[in-house]
Design brief:
The chain is mostly helical. It has one domain. Helices cover 62% and strands 0% of the residues.
Amino acid sequence: MARMGMVSPEEAPGGVKKLYDAVEKAAGMVPNALKVIANSPAVFKGFMNFNTALGSGKLPGVLREQVAVAVAQYNTCHY
């Protein structure tokens, strides 16, 4: 089965690197899922825009975080 590699911050093209820096500043790290999505800079940028739009929804930030933690726990995610 073919696997997609991860784009490291050192290998990231300019636009992706800027978004990596913003994610790292906000979260303290760049999740591996984002490093895989970054194989396509256009998809990565679109995903980040979508994620930003979701963040400006009507749910309070605390509730969004609780949902994210519950889903991560259910999926046995380590971060």
